[in-house]
Design brief:
The chain is mainly α. The chain is built from nine helices and two strands; from the N terminus they run H-E-E-H-H-H-H-H-H-H-H. A hairpin with a 5-residue loop joins strand 1 and strand 2. The chain starts with a helix and ends with a helix.
C-alpha cells in the first residue's frame, strides 16, 4: 500500500484496514437516498451522510460482509435522521429552497405521494423498491419482525395507490 492509501484507511476492531474512499464511492449515493426519504431535503440528507461516515470512522466496526457493512450504514443513517427530526431546532426551521430536479410529472407525483407517507412507511418503500432489499432483509435492518415489515409495505402501497388515484381524479 502506498502512503496516500494508508492515510485514507482506518483500522477496524479486527485489525483489518478499511478504505474510506471505497466506502464513500460505494455507499454514499445509497445513504443520500435513504436519508432524503426521511429528511425530504437534499442538504439535510447530505449532512446525514457525512455524520454516518463519521460514525464509521469513530466506531471502526468489524463487518462480516459487504451486506453487513451496507446494512450498518443504513441503520446509522436512519438513526441520525430520526434524531435530527426530533430536535426543536429542526422543527422550528424552514429549509432553503433547493434547485429543481428533472422529473417527469408522473415521477414528481409519485415522489410527492411517497413524501406524504408517514416515515415508517416511507423507509420500507424506499428500502424495498429503491435499494432492492427483501422483506426479511428490511426486517433485520430495522429491527422489526418480517410480518411487521410486510404489513407496513402493504399499507404503504395502499396509501400510495389511494393518493395517486386521488391526484389523478383531481386533474
Amino acid at each position: 500500500m502506498q502512503y496516500f492509501d494508508i492515510m485514507n484507511c482506518i483500522s477496524s476492531e479486527g485489525g483489518k484496514y478499511v478504505d474510506i474512499n471505497n466506502i464513500v464511492e460505494k455507499y454514499s449515493d445509497m445513504i443520500v437516498r435513504v436519508s432524503f426519504s426521511y429528511m425530504k431535503n437534499m442538504n439535510d440528507a447530505e449532512d446525514v451522510v457525512q455524520d454516518a461516515l463519521l460514525q464509521l470512522i469513530k466506531r471502526k466496526p468489524n463487518f462480516e460482509s459487504d451486506s453487513h457493512e451496507k446494512a450498518w450504514l443504513i441503520r446509522v443513517a436512519i438513526n441520525i435522521c430520526k434524531n435530527r427530526l426530533k430536535t426543536a431546532w429542526f422543527r422550528k426551521t424552514l429549509p432553503i429552497s433547493e434547485g429543481t430536479y428533472d422529473f417527469t410529472p408522473r415521477e414528481n407525483d409519485a415522489l410527492q405521494a411517497v413524501f406524504q407517507l408517514p416515515a415508517k412507511y416511507r423507509i420500507v418503500i424506499h428500502l424495498f423498491y429503491f435499494e432492492g432489499y427483501s422483506i426479511a432483509e428490511i426486517a433485520k435492518i430495522l429491527g422489526y419482525k418480517e410480518s411487521t415489515v410486510g404489513s407496513q409495505l402493504h399499507r404503504a402501497r395502499k396509501l400510495l395507490k389511494f393518493k395517486l388515484e386521488e391526484d389523478a381524479d383531481s386533474e
